Amino acid sequence: MKQVGTCIAGAGIIGLSLALELHRRGRSVLIVDQGRAMQEASWAAAGMLAAEDPENPPVLTPLSQLSRTLYPAFLARIESLSGISVALRTSKTLQQMHISTATELSLLNAAQLAQLAPGLVPGHRPWICLQEHSLDPRDLCQALPKASAAVGNEMLEYTPWLSIESGNLPLDGSKVRLQTASTTILADTFVLCTGAWAGQSSLLPGTVSPVKGQMLCIAQPSNLDLRHTIRTPEIYIVPRGDGRIILGATVEPSGFEKSTDEATLQSLLNQAAAVVPALAGATILDSWSGLRPGTADKLPVLGHIPNQPNVFVASGHYRNGILLAPATAHVMAQLICGETPSVELAPFSPERHLQTIESTAIPARA
Length: 366
Ligand code: GLY
Hints:
Elements: E1 2-9, H1 13-24, E2 29-32, H2 41-44, H3 61-82, E3 88-90, E4 93-96, H4 110-116, E5 127-130, E6 134-135, H5 137-150, E7 154-156, E8 161-166, E9 176-180, E10 184-192, E11 209-219, E12 229-231, E13 236-239, E14 244-248, E15 252-253, H6 262-275, E16 284-294, E17 301-304, E18 311-315, H7 321-336, E19 362-363
Parallel strand pairs: 1-2, 1-10, 2-7, 4-12, 10-18
Antiparallel strand pairs: 3-6, 4-5, 8-9, 8-19, 9-10, 11-14, 11-15, 11-16, 12-13, 13-14, 17-18
Helix pairs in contact: 1-5, 1-7, 3-5, 3-7
Glycine (GLY) binds next to loops.
């Protein structure tokens, strides 16, 4: 049996960032994950910190902007705790717009585009330049678990949880009891951070579901000077600054299968080459897919789970989990510690999805 302040299910970027933030506030934290830490959407992501992407739902803006503000300190803390550098790889994004949404924005002219992205074919739709950074999430996959361990947070990998009870437990003042195959965890609070798997739990049935993205890593051709991220409605092209370029991504409601297929990958490469012709025939170094945690309204689910005392959720970050991790950790730690979150969480409330929730013992899959 283990006793802890907060138990977090899910050791992706959301769960581990929250674990760090709760530790800062003096909580003891135990993280359980059904697999290995940082090996699902956090590992698969492109790493664009797209706080100003005009395609984002407008209601996401305060949370996105808070995250962008928190990011430098977030990375500095992870680096100093883990000893692993997590560099920002790009600092600008050239975004091609749907014409209908472009009017109020400052558009780039042909000379500006040629200077920012030599070799880009502008096409017929307008472009804007966003002050947006990107990082390589694989750096965070190395650093974040180490940082969490460095502050003393305990983590149980390959440990699915089988059931959860909350409310009036007859056990030493603990408020939540989580059962795994090998141990019972007693906690003051529990947070569901299981990404695309959150809707599999009976705590939040069907609220979050996987949306597959297939992706490619190609070698940057030697005749191409690509320093900025390029994003169109069809494709994004993210240079890592070390000879690798990431191309993504499909958006496929998929279930939990993570296959890739040659035709789709070739089509991603073709779409990239339509924007930057020097990419045609580039060497493919790697390909993979990941499962985004999708919700019906494309907004995360953040808050207290109704009728489950001391049980919270932070999931459903869809295409913006890497961006939103620091702000999610910040506002969820505030909520869990009884403070008023610095961003209004009503738009992200679990209630918007849920019809009925049982408050007794719930068999659940992590
Ligand atoms: N965040 C990029 C994607 O969802 O493809």
